[in-house]
Design brief:
The chain contains four helices and 18 strands. The protein has 282 residues and is of the alpha+beta class. The strands form four sheets. A five-stranded mixed beta barrel has the order 1-2-3-5-4. A hairpin with a 5-residue loop joins strand 14 and strand 15. It is elongated. It starts with 7 loop residues before the first strand and ends with a strand. This is S1-like domain-containing RNA-binding protein.
């Protein structure tokens, strides 16, 4: 029986009962799992899953994802002690185990994000949704054209780590987002909009989630002014500060920080003294 879980089968109806139909192998098809009026000895195509009592249940709502077939599934619920549940196209939502999610929950998917998954089973034979590995994505990537350089791209994050995040774009290109090319670490399954800053010889992309320098400088300057306001008009940073300290506090490079400082000094909004930056009250 366990080998039928997670598969699509054509089974004969043995008899009708008050709650639905009994199929071959004593599999139950509830009335609310089919829209058709069925009869004994009729064959019906169903997807088989388990209920909370580990009983085999059938549904005529066939999923777009099943064993050895991958597809995008939307996250519908997040339970930190278990993982996230995704919709695979049936009334039964399937668990992506926390063991298959990032170690840090702040980059877990949120409701509405999408994961590229297939179906599998745990050691107890329970049905799970399994996220695709890098090797799986390598079989579906497209070769990015050179004229994509500096163009806007939209992608879905499928891997995160300390070095950065990796996405697959709507066109099927692989894009890597280095941790210096975004202000916040994107979530697994999140859709992101960025800019192709390099088209590599292997047809993959380096992507930035940061705005162009002239736009980014405005955002960075605003962040510095906000920090000054929150700290009584003085912050322990200047254009001589350590790059790592700048990045840890403002999540921008030292070069971007210096550009923003220069803008604010030119506008006579700040001044620097003794390794600190002060706001100028007009």
């Amino acid at each position: 029986m366990n080998n039928l879980i997670g598969t699509i089968q054509t089974l004969e109806i043995i008899r009708e009962i008050d709650t639905g139909y009994v199929l071959e192998n004593d599999i139950l098809l509830h009335h609310n799992e089919t829209e058709a009026q069925l009869e004994p000895e009729q064959s019906v195509e169903v997807f088989i899953y388990q209920n909370k009592k580990d009983q085999a249940i059938a549904t005529t709502q066939l999923p777009n994802i099943h064993m050895d077939t991958y597809g995008w599934a939307q996250v519908v619920e997040v339970l930190p002690h278990l993982g996230v549940f995704v919709n695979i196209g049936t009334g039964k939502e399937i668990l992506v185990s926390k063991d298959d999610l990032p170690l840090f929950e702040d980059v877990w998917p949120e409701t509405g994000d999408e994961l590229y998954v297939t179906l599998g089973k745990d050691r107890k034979g329970r049905l799970l949704a399994i996220p695709a590995t890098e090797g799986v994505f390598e079989t579906i990537f497209e070769y990015a054209p050179e004229d994509l350089l500096n163009q806007q791209v939209t992608g879905r994050i499928y891997r995160t780590d300390r070095e950065g995040a990796t996405c697959i774009t709507e066109e099927g290109y692989r894009g890597f987002i280095h941790h210096t090319e975004r202000k916040e670490e994107p979530r697994l399954g999140q859709q992101v909009n960025g800019r192709a800053i390099e088209v590599k010889h292997d047809g993959t992309l380096n992507v930035s989630l940061r705005p162009l320098k002239q736009h980014g400088m405005l955002e960075d300057a605003d962040a510095i002014l906000e920090s000054l306001e929150e700290n009584d008009g003085v912050i322990p940073f200047s254009d001589k500060s350590d790059p790592d300290d700048i990045r840890d506090t403002f999540n921008i490079s030292k070069a971007a920080f210096k550009r923003a400082l220069g803008k604010l000094m030119k506008e006579k909004k700040i001044e620097q003294r003794d390794g600190k930056t002060y706001s100028i009250n007009k």
